[in-house]
């Protein structure tokens, strides 16, 4: 059994069906009280009632993995929660959101800036002469050989 958050545990304790707890041991039973074997029609009805288009049930797993990795959880931990045996599978699920990427870029930028300041010698800038001109460069073009 996979670990559940407190919020999910509380949600699962509430009766979710029209059947009483004593009659049905399933979290999401079919209308007859048996195990739900196919969720496509139920999922389509839920999306329709919520006014959501183009959202797959599988997208929930991707969202879970992406949120977990963006919060700093490792791929092996996320994979264990999703039931993956291969870290490569989890890597395909877990996509970083923009905020953690931006934060990481800022951290690296600050580290580079700090190290550059620490390593830079403290010298006076060289004076610039008024008459200084860019050096003239004469380009040589190879002559074509005539046969």
TrEMBL record:
GO process terms (BP): DNA integration; DNA recombination
Domain Tyr recombinase intervals: 1-106
InterPro entries the UniProt entry points to: DNA_brk_join_enz, Integrase-like_cat_sf, Integrase_catalytic
Coiled-coil stretches: none
Bias (Basic residues): 122-147
Keywords: DNA recombination
GO molecular function: DNA binding
CDD domains, per the entry: INT_Rci_Hp1_C
Spans annotated as Disordered: 110-147
Protein name: Site-specific integrase
Organism: Henriciella barbarensis
